[in-house]
Amino acid sequence: MSIVRLYGRAFLRGAIEPDVLLTIRDGVLEVERAARPPEQVQRVEGIIAPGFIDLHVHGGDGADFMDADASANERILRFHAHHGTTALAATTLSASPGDLQAAVGSIARSARTPSEGAEICAIYLEGPYINRERAGAQDPASIRRPDLEEVGALLALAPGMKWLMTVAPEIEGVRGLIERYRSEITFSIGHTAAGYAEAVAALEWGASHFTHLFNAMSGLHHRDPGVVGAALTSASATAELIADGIHVHPAVLRLAVQAMPQRIALITDAMRACGLANGTYKLYRHDVMVGGGAARLRDGTLAGSVLTMERAVQNMVEQAGLPLAAVLQLATEVPARILGVADRKGKLAESYDADVVVLSPQLAVERVFVGGRECSRSED
Ligand SMILES: [Zn+2]
User: How many angstroms separate the alpha carbon of residue 126 from the centre of ligand 1?
Assistant: First the structure.
């Protein structure tokens, strides 16, 4: 494999540092400081950052992980790599047991197959053991009570994979599910009608994460803190934010990051229309209308997003007014920690995977490397 040497400002140890020399060799990184650029180096005008890690993404470029199809998976991985994502958690929806098995099996096969795009490093089961009252765009007919055997069979389809799962703590059987599988699955509270006390209890059972904070859960009221209050006041739980400026107001994006420093992961929650023209698209069994930068069911309910990680990072800087170094952390180090891959991803550090994104001074994605291989950006 060829050697690539990049020189310039880089996101290193939590800050934007000048004079960084990054060598990509055999799929891993070598990082050093050099006051002067050595010969045969590619100078970067903008910023060198670790590749983005999107821990909640359903699809893009016309494809959805629920399609249970190798070429659909490949489309998603390529599309999001073009927008800076080098690793992701392939995310499923509430679906029939057969459809979930098919999707998980297909994702597991794609994760083992070399790709031209982002690496699949986890599977995220968003449902089906959630609350029908807060289904959002999830198929109500597929939402059901926890079935420990079903979960065991899904885990068996992808040995060695990292797992996340969204559950509603108030649903009968969820406590037993968390207590049974908490060492294998990162349980996330979401699509829930629970109140504050139930969410706090779920953290004690072993849940540790919140699915798209603020969306599809009880909000913060000063006399009734809700699930959002449980997240914002928790000591160690992590949470996701959809930073498209539509799901959550930019001021509230900033508030959440201030309340949960180093514990917020930016996600896209992108669905298949991401990257395509406005129109009508399928989200599992339902039609979703895309327009005005949003995806909605016929009744107006938000149905995932058409966001990319590139845009999410830009929005957190431009709309939420946060410093770039703080924002990059939420797209790299924090999701790496949540997914359990922080020992090899999420940072520009010696011997780490060569997952690298080069940003322009305006924060547009210019070049992307996954495991040291540059992703061609010729198609978009
Ligand atoms: Zn989702």
Answer: 6
